[in-house]
Design goal:
The chain is α/β, with parallel strands linked by helices and 390 residues long. The chain is built from 9 helices and 19 strands. 28% of the residues lie in helices and 25% in strands. The relative contact order is 0.16. The chain binds flavin-adenine dinucleotide.
Length: 390
């Protein structure tokens, strides 16, 4: 169980601490890394910081392939499960049978369940950047927060697209010119049994829109692969078309290209490493996947099986291994922008992929890029899915 030390108002005392592992960001990626460090006989002092309390600010529509919730013991957060996705164009609807269900879940509950599997101290603090370089190579690094400095030899940036701890040498390309998509959604009350996508240039010509039911609410949103395309008006248009109320706006940038998973001695994971998948903007599964991979590398460091430098190299390799798959998905993403405005081509493509056997195959290939079974197959302990050579 994590020890919560959240401070508000006058209790927001200065923070000036040392720890063994500092995890910045307490959402999907950061909490998964923390989970993997729990129970280590080395009993590392793990500190997780986030500007909000755990689970306070939902960061997505929260749909994920079901096996990941089972793998991580998070099924109690599930709200609804879907065996198919219905794709609506301007003229017709098609359904894709899924090889494994997609599940929508409660963000706050999932974060709490994930955090409860960790063993860490938690502080609310805004991470501002890296401090001066360590005096000794490989020595503790300093991270500056709005409550003071925190020092740790192992530092993880799981802060989402801003990549706050990027080394100064890195080109800081900011949106809308960065390789990012835009996503915005609302959460009106209501119920539905259909996990729906809208491929319709009435809402967005280069992207897609969605309606994801989650218990008593429906998460309705629009994502544009072209970051220059604003999505607020299209979101309102879609909500109106679906005869729902535009309640509870929530949006963000979504990186759609892999970035370097290490830099300046920092480990990046989840959106900060560009792990969100292009084409679908599915980022929770990658945050879990690379969070587990990173957590296990860090565990090997705190337990003395490898050095920090070795872990940096290995983890960078693990992330880079997926480059070909990400490149393919990015190519397909670029096609989407060309196809959606051409209604006839779009209808042909959907008709070709909608027979259950074809749809299931296509989705299986997509889901295999990051599969929950990676962590259970080949290794009875589920601890070493990547070879030392990777
Ligand atoms: C509208 C929308 C809908 C989406 N729907 C889905 C979906 O249904 N399924 C899916 O798989 N993906 C979805 N995504 C993508 C998914 O949300 C992200 O890829 C995923 O959240 C990445 O997880 P993460 O842990 O890397 O980062 P995040 O979830 O973004 O978490 C970053 C954490 O860092 C904290 N933080 C940020 N900056 C600071 C700072 N300076 N100091 C301290 N703390 C900070 C934040 O408070 C947050 O807790 C969606 C994205 C959007 C925008």
């Amino acid at each position: 169980m994590p020890t919560r030390a959240t401070k508000r108002g006058d209790d927001r005392t200065p923070l000036d601490v040392d720890c063994d592992v500092l995890i910045c960001g307490a959402s999907f990626a950061g909490l998964t890394v923390a989970r993997e460090l729990a129970g280590s006989p080395a009993r590392p002092r793990v500190l997780v910081v986030d500007r909000y309390e755990i689970g306070e600010r939902q960061t997505s529509a929260c749909a994920v392939p079901g096996p990941w919730l089972e793998l991580l013991g998070l099924t109690d957060a599930a709200l609804q499960s879907f065996d198919e996705i219905v794709a609506h164009t301007a003229d017709r609807s098609y359904s894709w049978a899924l090889p494994e269900p997609f599940v929508t879940f409660d963000y706050r509950r999932l974060c709490r369940l994930l955090a409860d599997q960790g063993d860490f101290l938690f502080e609310t603090a805004k991470v501002e950047g890296l401090g001066p370089r360590p005096a000794v190579p490989g020595g503790p690094m300093t991270v500056i927060t709005d409550r003071g400095p925190v020092r740790a030899p192992l530092v993880v940036d799981a802060l989402g697209w801003r990549r706050v701890l990027a080394p100064e040498s890195e080109d800081a390309i900011q949106p809308p010119d960065a390789y990012m998509s835009r996503g915005l959604e609302v959460h009106p009350e209501g119920r539905s049994d259909e996990l729906a996508l809208y491929l319709n240039d009435r809402y967005v010509p280069d992207g897609y829109s969605w309606s994801f039911p989650a218990g008593d609410e429906v998460r309705v949103g629009v994502g544009s692969f072209d970051p220059h395309h604003h999505v607020k008006d299209p979101t309102l248009r879609l909500v109106q078309d679906l005869r729902r109320e535009p309640d509870g706006f929530q949006g963000n940038w979504i990186p759609h290209r892999l970035r370097s998973a290490t830099g300046g001695g920092v480990f990046f994971v989840g959106d900060s490493a560009g792990h969100c998948l292009p084409l679908t903007a599915e980022g929770i599964r990658p945050a879990f996947h690379f969070g587990i991979a990173l957590g296990r590398e860090l565990r090997d460091v705190v337990e003395g099986r490898q050095t920090r430098e070795q872990a940096l190299r290995r983890y960078a390799g693990i992330s880079a291994q997926k480059h070909p798959a990400y490149r393919w998905l990015l190519r397909l993403q670029r096609l989407v922008g060309r196809v959606i405005p051409h209604h006839r081509t779009l209808e042909l493509a959907l008709r070709a992929t909608s027979p259950p056997r074809v749809g299931r195959r296509a989705w299986s290939a997509y889901l295999r890029t990051l599969s929950a079974s990676t962590w259970t197959a080949d290794d009875p302990e589920g601890r070493r899915p990547f070879s030392r050579r990777s």
